[in-house]
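Hi R.,

Here's the chain you asked about this morning:
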Amino acid sequence: MRTAIFKVIKPGLLTTVQDLGRYGYQQFGISPSGAMDPYSMQLANILVGNDQGEAVLEASFLGPVLEAGSDMVIAICGGEFSTKVNGREVLMWKSFLLKKGEILSMGSYKQGARAYLAIAGGIDVPVVLKSKSTSLNGGFGGYEGRPLQKSDLLYGNPVIRKPWKALHPGLIPQFNKQLTVRVILGPHQQMVTEKSIKQFLSEEYIVTPQSNRMGYRLKGPKLEHKLGSDIISDPIPLGGIQVPASGQPIILLVDRQTTGGYTRIGTVISVDIPLLAQAVPDTTVSFTEVSLEEAQRLYLERQKFIKLLQVATK
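And here is the predicted structure, written out as tokens:
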């Protein structure tokens, strides 16, 4: 039954409705959007008994303060935030009952950049182009196509599901400020000098404050082109690493433009996107090359684990 689940007391820095994304529309200039850390998002849904792709709230750096409009079962996964209910601390990576009238505060981040709040029964927002995700650039989807604001009312179909579930501590990702990210080189590595490719795979880069859901701008040793940085515009995949004329890499993420005209030296593999999505400014990133076959193997292993976890928690 559709009912008010949350009134927004404070919206946080950037809190949006996101699911696994809006795929199949890049040819029309529409980026996928979706959760920056789809792994944490899916696990939050599994812990409350939802389909793994159900929409959740994604909070970045500073979470919202929400008043519960009904009894509901929730779980919060992702980066470590100072999460409290009526002033008392609650654990992340587990489901629990939030009662009508209680105040949930997701606070500020301690480790990682983003946390995901799943509600048993899901969030009731319109499905736009087969997704509930908020397109911040397009101004559609999610809650009126924008981040949450003070006094907004969120609706859902809350379901009380028992028993409460928790993820084993050994399965909880650790988010730190030194990352090693695996990449597949190409498709334009031949446009970058051999020295720069070796440099890219051996030196460290820093995540700058000029980073967001569209992409992470990195700072580090300059990468040099052989004849210039421009290419004929082509489609950009999730994790594509552009090298513009500045020689400073940009990793393109869920709100990326659909095509681009800069050289791409490589692509971050799918299973490392969640860890990268949790990187805060000043995080150190180093890159290591893997094959396409290895990237596919790792992806299938991750999907198998998620499916097994979903079955095991039912």
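One quick note: The chain has a mean pLDDT of 96.

Cheers,
M.
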